[in-house]
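Exercise 7b. C-alpha cells:
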C-alpha cells in the first residue's frame, strides 16, 4: 500500500488536489514506489492529461518504481549522477 500511496501523492501533486477535490498542499521533490502499483491508473492518467499544467508538473517530478522479482525501473527526470547515488 505504501507504493500506491507514493504514486497517488505524486498524482495529487501534479493535479494540485486530492481525489475528493480538496487542495493538495504538499510540494513533493520525488516519489519512490517499491513493489507496488497505482490502482485506477486509467482514471489517474485522464485526470492528469486534462490539464497541460498538470502534465508539465508530472513530467518534472522524479519517479522511481521497483516491482516484481526482476527490477523494472521507471525513472522520470533523474540525472545519471542521481542514479549513481541511488546505486
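Sequence design result:
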Amino acid at each position: 500500500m505504501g507504493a500506491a500511496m507514493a504514486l497517488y501523492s505524486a498524482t495529487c501533486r501534479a493535479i494540485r488536489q486530492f481525489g475528493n477535490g480538496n487542495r493538495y498542499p504538499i510540494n513533493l521533490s520525488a516519489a519512490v514506489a517499491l513493489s507496488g502499483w497505482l490502482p485506477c491508473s486509467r482514471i489517474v492518467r485522464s485526470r492528469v492529461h486534462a490539464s497541460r499544467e498538470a502534465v508539465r508538473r508530472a513530467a518534472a517530478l522524479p519517479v522511481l518504481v521497483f516491482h516484481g522479482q526482476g527490477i523494472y525501473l521507471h525513472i522520470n527526470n533523474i540525472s545519471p549522477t542521481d542514479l549513481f547515488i541511488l546505486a
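Instructor comment: Helices lie at 2-15, 41-49, 52-60, 80-86. Residues 2-86 form one domain.
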